[in-house]
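WARN retry 2 of 3 for item q-0093 after timeout on previous attempt; input resubmitted unchanged.
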Amino acid sequence: MKKQATTIFLGISLLLLAVVSFIFFRQIDTGSSGLFSNQGGRMPGMGMHMGGEVTTELAPSTEQSNKLVLPPILEGNLTPEDGTSYSITALNGNTQLKEGEPTPTYGYNGSVLGPIIRIRSGEKVEIKTENELDTTTSFHWHGLKVPSNVDGGPHTPIPTGGTADLKFMVKQEAATLWFHPHPIGEAGEQVYQGLAGLIYIEDENSDSLALPKEIGINDFPVIVQDRSFGSNNQLDYTQSYGPDGTYGDTLMMNGTINPYLDVMNEKIRLRVLNGSNARNYQFRLSNSSTFYQIASDGGFLNEPVPMESLQLVPGERAEIILDLSDYKVGEKIQLMEANIVVLTINVTEKTSKKSPPLPKTLNNIPKAEDSTTPDKVMTFSGMGNMVAIDGKQFDMDRIDLRAKVGEKEVWEIKNIRDMMGGMIHPFHLHGVQFKVISRNGNAPPANEQGWKDTIALYPGDSVRIEVTFPEKGIFMYHCHILEHEDNGMMGQVLVE
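OK item q-0093 returned
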């Protein structure tokens, strides 16, 4: 009898333990509690379940095909210091994204997204930023090597009606960068509503390379984002929100749904940015043909890399070349993500000139140097509102790391698996372009052997990077799943 009572007691205890564990992990998943409660009590709508599983799948578009909208080039003005000045204003707007009602959106100098800012290496640049939104924002220059007071992270918020004047010298090589908001706790929602723009840096090397460079003719920006639309074509961030990332069922390129391009039968260049809040993309061509990656986040690779597929995590960029020289007028090819058409490319005209071969050499980046013992080690862990770096969530009053300006360091970044398997964390470091030394002890793939500011950390990964900060100040490092960033998966390094 006593043995039977003991067995019943153990059974009840195990049942209670299972119930408590379910509630605890359910809270982590739904964001109903957390150490970094800056999400205003948001509960998840569509998005991710436990274990990082994406539950909002992309759906084939039912919209009519639309010509890909190309962002305008922002015109600058000469300054007395022989530099160039630009003005960028964050605005509320309404945009005709779908058939029916216009969609309330945010934009830079327009109703949605923003212009392309073209600058040159060695140029003196001034940017006047202004906030006409009804909420505080900031202007982060993702990938730019600038002092921390220019970087536009959470330390430099701009309130409604506020302005900030920025001055800096362009001290890096040709690259495709971008800019977006980075306010504490609201980056995800503001990007989702439409705030994102591109920066093109050019230099003597980019001028000299025989590459497609006629913007809108054979050189195209492609900002890839996913969104979900509610009634009357509303972007309902609260309904779509997930603490492990906000996902949509509709793909947009440059704010265009179901886009197409009309081109000549020549080589074309796509500058692709994953501007989504959380979704990772695996791009391929509809006929499984080879394309060539010529640049990563921070500039040209040393040589073109043949690719049959390309993964980009949020914040990451790649420039790719498609050779359409053998295509006949009337033929087409499509950029795909799984079975979803990203962009249809129609050959509508025969070129009058022959495309030159791709240059064999694009850049001369020295190989990254490893060390026996890394200078810094950090761990990414957790999900939902329980995300952390080195077991801590962001505190603006705490310096997490220290570094010396101009001093080369090796960082080791780990993504710790948990009982639910974990998920990919895109690692982004402000104020610098770094080099990937190794992935899990092995050489990185060829398309990661260039300048980077954002990389994928897979569950269980250990990645080493070579870092040299060119400027002093406080710089952020964080997960570029914007909801993780908002939930506190950030740290800061003081460079002295």
